[in-house]
Design goal:
This protein is 29% helix and 6% strand. It has a two-stranded parallel sheet with strand order 1-2. It is globular and about 30 Å long.
Length: 94
């Protein structure tokens, strides 16, 4: 809903396929992914299944988060990275 889709205000936005592929590549290297959404756990799980984001885990505390909304969780001990910075793009909604 703004990080992996093109619409921050609606969880059913168009998927940002290049970003999803980047996550798949990271998972293939052994990286762990914690996926969450303001739309809830069921939505996040369904999204992971729909886009084959295998190995999604929620174990321990993440070192960093990629989030389009800094107001959801202000930066503290966990570093917040803007999606465009993490994915190296500005808008790949197609």
């Amino acid at each position: 809903d703004g990080t992996l889709t093109n619409d921050a205000g609606h969880p059913r936005g168009t998927p940002r396929r290049a970003r999803i592929e980047r996550l798949r590549a990271l998972l293939a290297t052994g990286a762990q992914l914690v996926l969450w959404s303001g739309a809830g756990t069921a939505y996040a799980r369904a999204f992971a299944r729909r886009y084959n984001l295998d190995g999604v885990v929620a174990i321990g505390k993440p070192e960093a988060m990629v989030d389009d909304n800094p107001l959801i969780r202000p930066e503290g001990k966990m570093k917040r990275i803007a999606p465009a910075e993490f994915f190296g793009d500005h808008d790949d909604a197609a």
